[in-house]
Specification:
Length: about 70
């Protein structure tokens, strides 16, 4: 039973491990963008949207999904 379950879940484990490796590589760039987002005043929606687009572009650049860990 355990062997069957682990065999079925193995592809998900591999996908999660690959995504974790990509997230580790992109972490320095992501930290810079998130710090820029934190420094934006709360009322400046355009700047927040611009930094969010940069963050999404970063995920696309590394072909990584932020929800892949769930």
């Amino acid at each position: 039973m355990t062997l069957v379950l682990r065999t079925l879940l193995f592809p998900l484990v591999i996908i999660t491990a690959r995504n974790a490796a990509k997230m580790t590589i992109m972490r320095p760039e992501m930290d810079v963008i998130t710090e820029q987002i934190r420094t934006v005043p709360p009322g400046d929606r355009q700047a927040q949207m611009r930094y969010q687009k940069e963050l999404y572009g970063l995920f696309a650049k590394y072909q990584c999904s932020p929800l892949s860990f769930l």
